[in-house]
Amino acid sequence: MKNCKFTIMLFIISSLLFISAAQAPQLAEPEISQFVDLFVKKWNQHDPRELIELWAENGDLMNPAGEWEKGRANVLKNLIKEHRGLLYESQMKQEITNILVLSPTMAWVDAKVSLNVPGIASGLDHHIVYLLVKQNNQWKILAVRPYQFLDLNLGRFE
Prior knowledge:
The protein is built from three helices and six strands; from the N terminus they run ααββαββββ. By secondary structure, it is of the alpha+beta class. It has a six-stranded mixed β-sheet with strand order 2-1-6-5-4-3. The longest helix is centred in the first third of the chain and has 44 residues.
């Protein structure tokens, strides 16, 4: 009888854990969308010291120029340089195209970015990939990679 109760209890607990794990992506996606919205808002305010608060302490950034900064202090230096330079008055919009929740504390996010930069008529539209980590109940950037797609025809030559 003891084994039967234990087995039933184990079944109930494992079922609850399975249901909880299955719901994790749906529960995380609105939080992640809000995080990306916050990133855009802070970018458009052009205060790198506010923007860097969205990075994990060991987070990194590789910008489209290939400059790779690791750790918040180094990423901050890059953000200051960018926001005092060409991107000073830029205005960003993002459209999330994919959220892949890897675990309850890690997610991969793809987004289309429209970056309006004064003086550049066509803007700097590109794609961005975030690797987010949840620390102290808040999403943070562990890695971010903005890049542009190449205009290539990869089909067969005719």
